[in-house]
Amino acid sequence: MKKRFCLALAMIMALTLLTSDALAATVLEVGSSGSDVTKVQNRLIQYGYMTGAADGRYGEKTRDAVIWFQQRNGLTVDGKVGPRTAAALGVTLSGSSSAAAAASSGSASIVSADHRLLAKLVYAEARGEPYKGQVAVAAVVLNRVRSSSFPNTVSGVIYQRNAFTCVNNGSINNTPDSSCIRAALDALNGWDPTGGCLYYYNPKTATDDWIRSRTTKTVIGRHYFCT
Questions:
Q1: Single pTM value for the model
Q2: What is the side-by-side order of every strand in the sheet holding 223-226?
């Protein structure tokens, strides 16, 4: 009797572990459909990796967009959305384990040294701004990285002499909050609310006449973004 009980208990535990592993390993691929696919597509569209509408069907177009996103973000390039790709996109897959869900829920998780430094810059320069404005500040840094007129690394741009007041006054060293961490990741993933701007300033506090001579493309919160 005791032996049968132990065997039954072992089988229950094994089934529980199998179920847990299956949930933790939720993966979206060609042929998948539903709300998880819609969430992934919306992110890919937001970040500029995909065009059109999110239809909730994981076809070749979605797969190709995922591959492009994975290539740009140093992920395993397989065209599938598992926990790591979902985390980089900032989405939570239904049925993910609690640990995977925490990693992909858009919570304050640092994914790289560049992400950490960029988040600190956003916190120092734009913590009182609307979320879109925080993403925009991060995007300016990344636009400079891509420009031949500036250093080609995030740290090089941020620490370029007299480029940012927060470096001069030391506030770059403050710990960023979750909003600024997410904003930096959104910018790293391709969201640029500025449309390619290389500069921004607050007209109420700017003392440099040169920055006021730049062409303003958009205004977000208290910042003017310009070329």
A1: 0.61
A2: 199-201, 223-226, 216-220
